From TrEMBL:
Leader sequence residues: 1-25
Domain Exostosin GT47: 45-282
One Pfam family here: Exostosin_GT47
MF term (GO), any: glycosyltransferase activity
Coarse class of the protein's main subcellular location: Golgi
UniProt keywords, alphabetically: Glycosyltransferase, Golgi apparatus, Signal, Signal-anchor, Transferase, Transmembrane
Membrane topology, as annotated: Single-pass type II membrane protein
Protein name, per record: DH200=94 genomic scaffold, scaffold_1639
């Protein structure tokens, strides 16, 4: 798992904890209620976990960290009658038919599913679950909260019900450095793994433009991230370093030709004020026009909000206040 020790990640969290009252705007959708509700959550919120039918492990880092953190947290209760939500753990590779059987078992063996038809239940699936005609699978898909990994395909994600987990940063030590200076040498920086071939033309255009830097590995180019105004991400491509980019003061730009509704903590953070969505169909000319159109004051505010928000997207082996685990719990 690409995670450093908990002490290192806690240092990362502390380095990102910019006093929020110093910002000209808030990174939160509802700042007046967030902190009071967060404190109430810590003392009152309870989750009951059904016993898995067979032992299994999550191999994907964000799911593994969330599952392990929940098992070791005070949120978990053995008394189902005091639970606010019910967690259904099952292996990531469980078939649709087997998921339907599992829901049918819960319906018959426990009184909790039928009370809300699964609306107070949640489950984890790395890429989300697909639709099905089976009644039990339909209720799981449409009613229960799905926790998947960002990004999740639109057909497998229901906005304002489902939740995505922030990616685990590939080089958490970089977060300790904090944001770079206010003057950047490059307009944009991108990590290109060459997998999304439909974007080859746009990437090749950027490679030929001296205002852009295109590299293959994010972890070896912290200085380039800090020396760039914008960090570019192809939706569905290499996005694991987006939190690192925000923490280092590089405004994220997601290149995508449709709306994005599955950002992590999308019901908590004001993503529209921290980053940009830019269509790829206009090529490099349109991309540069959009980026150059972000004025100085607006850019500085986006940068500051991104740095402040990034502390809530950091994973720790031992959860810390307001980190990714606790903020996902808050969104639940």
């Amino acid at each position: 798992m690409a995670v450093s020790s908990s002490s290192v990640l806690f240092l990362c969290l502390l380095s990102l904890a910019q006093p929020l009252h110093s910002l000209s705007a808030s990174p939160y959708l509802f700042p007046s209620t967030l902190f009071d509700n967060y404190e109430k959550m810590l003392t009152t919120f309870r989750i009951y976990m059904y016993t898995p039918q067979k032992p299994f492990t999550f191999t994907t880092p964000p799911l593994s960290l969330f599952h392990t953190s929940l098992l070791n947290s005070p949120f978990l209760t053995q008394n189902a009658d005091e639970a606010h939500l019910f967690y259904i753990p099952f292996p990531p590779d469980l078939s649709t038919r087997s998921r339907a059987r599992l829901v049918r078992h819960l319906r018959i063996s426990y009184p909790y599913w039928n009370r809300t038809l699964g609306a107070d239940h949640f489950f984890m699936a790395p890429g989300g679950v697909a639709s099905s005609s089976d009644r039990n699978a339909v209720e799981l898909k449409k009613n229960s909260v799905q926790i998947s990994i960002f990004p999740t395909a639109s057909g497998d994600f229901i906005p304002h019900k489902d939740i995505t987990l922030p990616p685990v940063n590939p080089s958490p030590l970089a977060l300790v450095q904090g944001p770079g200076n206010d003057t950047a040498s490059h307009l944009g920086f991108m990590v290109w793994d060459g997998k999304l071939l439909e974007y080859n033309y746009l990437v090749n255009e950027m490679k030929r433009d001296p205002e852009f830097r295109i590299e293959s590995e994010p972890s070896d180019h912290v200085d380039l991230v800090k020396d760039s105004k914008f960090c570019l991400f192809l939706y569905g491509g290499e996005m694991t370093w987006m939190v690192e980019a925000m923490a280092l003061g590089c405004v994220p730009v997601v290149l995508v030709d449709r709306p994005v509704q599955d950002f992590p903590l999308t019901d908590v953070l004001r993503w529209s004020d921290m980053g940009l969505l830019v269509r790829t169909r206009g090529g490099l000319k349109r991309l540069k026009a959009v980026l150059n159109g972000v004025g100085g004051d607006r850019y500085q505010q986006m940068r500051e909000l991104g740095v402040a928000a990034s502390r809530h997207l950091v994973w720790n082996l031992e959860p810390q206040p307001y980190d990714a685990f606790h903020m996902v719990m808050y969104q639940l």
